[in-house]
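Whiteboard transcription, Tuesday session. T.W. wrote the structure tokens on the left side:
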């Protein structure tokens, strides 16, 4: 008789028959850096318990810890003061902006860790949209022009991976051309290819200081990115997004958010067989963490269960705010 419980009886037989394994090499740690010279080094983000906005110096110390644990790469997100923001996100093009300075510093102090920089304007614009807004519309091609310059700016500073998270059409191809033109043929493009218009990004917008609403968004009561980010109900469209980004020169693709989109990860990985990453975003992190903090779920078990599920669905790696803790658990 077939009895599937036989293999589940002992720890050794469970280990031997385990199909999917998560390792530290699968983790990417998203980090926030602030430019405040005053106040605490590490700023608390109330909607993301256990996650901080680091000062540059404190970030270096923490990135050393990540590197020593074996985490292959970090993704850097800036929190700049409101006075540096404008309608067009001009600060994104400043060669000495917070991201460029931080990248530079990390490269000199922790040279072996991979550095991923977001290509999008939202941390730099007063309205918090990822692109240029005119008469309430997000302008695609005008935005792409600026994104190309932003990507080159970050590449010059030493970013290894440029990660367009803006969801404009045709941006991957244009960014690839702009990088090539400046001699950056070897920079990796990790495209946020299937990025959904999600309520799970709420806490992130607090973290980078882009949550205050203006104009039409204020009337709606939330930042509406649904003219560029995908409809959560769509799945075939995600494959088209990935196909286009690959044809335009993307080296890796991402699905975002993570847990609510495991089917998308599975379809993309099955169809294209390319490096595919999942982003366990801020709202996913905070939902799990707040339940854990209330004692309603077991923190380590619930996070490790979600992380392995991304791999089971086909992801090669996961961006997660839980990366340091997960790495410590995996290292034993
Ligand atoms: C911005 C960007 C967002 C995230 C990563 N890059 C927010 C958004 O699109 O509004 C979200 C990450 C998270 O929620 O953890 N282009």
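and on the right, the sequence the group agreed on:
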């Amino acid at each position: 008789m077939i009895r599937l419980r036989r293999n589940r009886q002992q720890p050794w037989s469970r280990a031997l028959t385990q199909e999917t394994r998560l390792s530290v090499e699968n983790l990417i740690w998203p980090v926030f850096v602030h430019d405040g010279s005053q106040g605490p080094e590490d700023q608390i983000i109330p909607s993301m318990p256990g996650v901080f906005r680091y000062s540059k110096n404190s970030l270096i110390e923490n990135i050393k810890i990540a590197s020593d644990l074996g985490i292959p790469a970090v993704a850097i997100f800036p929190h700049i003061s409101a006075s540096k923001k404008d309608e067009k996100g001009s600060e994104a093009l400043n060669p000495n902006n917070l991201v460029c300075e931080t990248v530079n510093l990390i490269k000199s102090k922790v040279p072996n860790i991979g550095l991923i920089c977001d290509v999008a304007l939202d941390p730099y614009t007063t309205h918090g949209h990822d692109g240029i807004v005119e008469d309430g519309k997000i302008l695609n091609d005008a935005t792409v022009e600026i994104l190309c310059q932003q990507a080159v700016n970050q590449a010059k500073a030493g970013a290894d991976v440029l990660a367009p998270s803006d969801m404009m059409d045709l941006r991957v191809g244009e960014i690839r051309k702009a990088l090539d033109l400046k001699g950056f043929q070897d920079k990796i493009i990790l495209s946020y290819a299937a990025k959904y218009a999600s309520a799970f990004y709420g806490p992130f917008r607090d973290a980078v200081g882009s949550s205050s609403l203006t104009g039409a968004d204020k009337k709606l009561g939330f930042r509406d990115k649904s003219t560029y980010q995908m409809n959560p109900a769509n799945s075939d469209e995600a494959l088209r997004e990935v196909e286009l980004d690959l044809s335009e020169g993307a080296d890796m693709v991402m699905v975002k958010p993570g847990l609510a989109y495991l089917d998308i990860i599975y379809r993309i990985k099955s169809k294209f067989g390319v490096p595919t990453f999942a982003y366990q975003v801020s709202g996913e992190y905070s939902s799990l963490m707040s339940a854990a903090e209330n004692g309603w779920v077991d923190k380590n078990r619930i996070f490790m269960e979600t992380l392995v599920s991304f791999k089971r669905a086909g992801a090669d790696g996961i961006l997660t705010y839980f990366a340091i803790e997960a790495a410590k658990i995996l290292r034993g």
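Someone added at the bottom: The longest strand covers residues 27-34.
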